[in-house]
Amino acid sequence: MAETVRKENRASDASATDPPPVTAFETVAETRLLRLRRYAPAHGRADGPPVLLVYSLLKRPYVLDLLPERSLVRSLTQQGFSVYLTDWLPPSAEDADCGMAGYVNCELARAVEIMKARDGAHTVSMIGCCLGGLLAAVYCALHPQDVAHLVPFALPFEMQPLLPPAAAAYLVSLYGNVPAWWIRATLNARVANPFDRPAYLAQELGEPELANSVDAPVHQALDRWFASDVPFAGRLFCELANIYEHSDLARGRLEVAGRPVPFANICCPVLNISAERDRLVQGSGSFLEQVGSVEASSVSFATGHLGLMVSRSAHETLWPRVAGWLRSTVASDKFAARAATPQARRPQRPPRAADAARQTTRTGRKSCRTRSSAGA
After folding, report:
1. CA-CA distance, 73 to 84, in Å (whole number)?
2. Is residue 372 part of a domain?
3. Is position 64 within any domain?
4. How far apart are CA 47 and CA 319, in angstroms?
5. Nearest CA to 271 among 177, 154, 187, 97?
6. What does pTM read for this prediction?
7. What pLDDT tens digit does each residue of the chain (376 aa) get?
8. Is residue 82 part of a domain?
């Protein structure tokens, strides 16, 4: 009973300041650190595997459903996908020891099993936002049999740590979890001067008119979202500081709970999306060099970090194209389910995916190495 009350209180505290949702959803499960939302396809039966939007652990996830014309959730449901979203619950003091293993092998793994059971699917497609993209990529490397497509965007793969490992450990020793006020002061100060936010959003979203229209709905919605920071699990914060300090991702040396994370195990189609003017994420080029997929492509989109989520151009061109890519590569679903078996056959690249990617994607063709069994 006490655990149930604790979870309800944390969930209520996290969402108390959220605006009303743009797209209706149902909460289908709640775990220690995750509340799983489901958004039904807008027009009847779902098209392809269900899509899991793996949100970042920073701020509230409603930025992915911000306004009717600026909603990634709505874009995907209107194009026929069954969409699930990770609404991460703020870690309590008891959760300070939760690291990447807990988030990936417990929370995400449980969400995937629930999705497959509810939708009668063998695999799911994953779209990961920023740090959520890293969690999704790690999950895909450790559990390749579960993933039909992987789409990380603004992936923090080649980064400098927010603090050196020793300083990160000291901060966590003081507070247990990294406080929301520290996250806000550190990250927001890097990108969004509150005294010049209209100019920042105009550049970030690639919409010059926003510099002179402070009353625009997107201004008001994002002002609220900028203040929606939540605490960050202490152990995961220290793990990331060490990972980035030693370039473990770029050098292929990442381990989770003592187990190597072989990105070469990722054999499903991969579409890595970056922003040309990203001020937060420094690069993810080496990620595609490590994956084992024969369908590994990248797109660089002409916005900033936030523009990938809420810019008008992203919703007019980028996300409809991603939906088309998911649909055109749906035949690879069966291949992803076999990705953990030795000597898997290479899937044929669907012609429509190649045509759609010709102008702005870079495609790498690598042979998929022999897979070991991908247990939990």
Report:
1. 9
2. no
3. yes
4. 16
5. 154
6. 0.85
7. 445 444 444 544 566 789 999 999 999 999 989 999 999 998 878 878 999 999 999 999 999 999 999 999 999 999 999 999 999 999 999 999 999 999 999 999 999 999 999 999 999 999 999 999 999 999 999 999 999 999 999 999 999 888 999 999 999 999 999 999 999 888 776 665 656 888 889 999 999 999 988 778 999 999 899 889 999 999 999 999 999 999 999 999 999 999 999 999 999 999 999 999 998 887 788 899 999 999 999 999 999 999 999 999 999 999 999 999 998 875 444 433 333 333 333 333 333 333 333 333 433 333 343 233 333 3
8. yes
Residue 35 CA to residue 32 CA, distance in Å, equals 8
In-domain check, residue 186: yes
**In terms of residue numbers, what domain contains 150?**
2-364
**Residue 180 parent element (H or E):** helix 180-183
Report the CATH number at residue 47: 3.40.50.1820
Number of folded domains in the chain?
Answer: 1
